Amino acid sequence: MSVPADILTLVAVRLKSRRLPRKALADLAGKPLIQRLTERVAQAQHPKVVYWCTSTNPEDDPLEALAETSEAWIYRGDELDVISRFIEVAWSRSAEIVVRVTGDNPLTDPSMIDYMIDEHRKNGADYTYCDALPRGTRSEIISVSALEECHALADDPSSSEYMTYMLRRPDHFQVLEVTPSHAQLNRPDLRLTCDEPADLEVLQRLYDAFEGAPPPLPEIIAWLDANEDVSALN
């Protein structure tokens, strides 16, 4: 694959986790969670390339092996300095904008990725986000120049795992918060991330209900509202 890309989707993923170890490999309707995530974000129209940005720790070797059979590129870099991984991938592809996705969010909404990219460009933003979506469906749009400045501002490179906090600084960056593209997406009360065993159970039951092919987010939200026994698990 040698697809040119000025916008990249970068998934921060590692297998080390205190609460739910190796969750990126957890089964969702017959495939690992990280592959389900890749299928989902690949539905966005603007970014054409997805990278798994992981570490050089041998613990993450299974991700590299899995990437060989996936529709994703993989980049391995500093174990703690997440921003450096993102910057190095962006430089390697001459990207101007990156979509940040975390590796425990297989239901990241592709339509909002496209909508936020359009708003990001239209408003000349450095950093664009939406906190009104269900947790676990959100992404962030970041200009590479802002990533570079954010990295320079970090006193401790290991703190770059908290890049969201540092980028939400209007004294340094043009920050844009958008509202959901559709009113029914405004559901921050719902939790669809995968951080604990109960979260995984919710995702597994949802993926099983839709036979491994979850519909657009409004339909997922409607399903959760109709199946409160599932949404109440976490």
Mass-distribution shape: globular
Low-confidence stretches: none
Q: What is the terminal-to-terminal distance?
A: 39 Å
Helix-strand topology string:
EEEHEHEHEHEEHHEHHH
Sketch the major β-sheet: 7 strands, mixed
Strand content: 15-25%
Structural class, from helix and strand content? alpha/beta
- Radius of gyration from the CA trace? 17 Å
Helix content: 25-40%
Task: Please state how the strands of the largest beta sheet are arranged side by side.
Answer: 5-4-1-6-8-7-9
Q: What is the number of E strands?
A: 9
Write down the overall mean pLDDT.
Answer: 93
Q: Supply the number of helical segments.
A: 9
Describe this structure in words.
The chain is α/β, with parallel strands linked by helices. Helices cover 35% and strands 16% of the residues. It is built from 9 helices and 9 strands. The strands form 2 sheets. The protein has a 7-stranded mixed beta sheet, sandwiched between helices. A two-stranded antiparallel sheet has the order 2-3. Helix 3 runs antiparallel to helix 5. The longest helix is centred in the middle third of the chain and has 13 residues, at 110-122. It is globular, with a radius of gyration of 17 Å. The model has no long low-confidence stretch (mean pLDDT 93).
SSE blueprint and pairings:
Layout: E1 7-12, E2 27-28, E3 31-32, H1 33-41, E4 49-55, H2 61-67, E5 73-77, H3 82-93, E6 97-102, H4 110-122, E7 127-129, E8 140-143, H5 144-153, H6 163-167, E9 175-177, H7 197-209, H8 217-226, H9 228-231
Parallel strand pairs: 1-4, 1-6, 4-5, 7-9
Antiparallel strand pairs: 2-3, 6-8, 7-8
Helix pairs in contact: 3-5
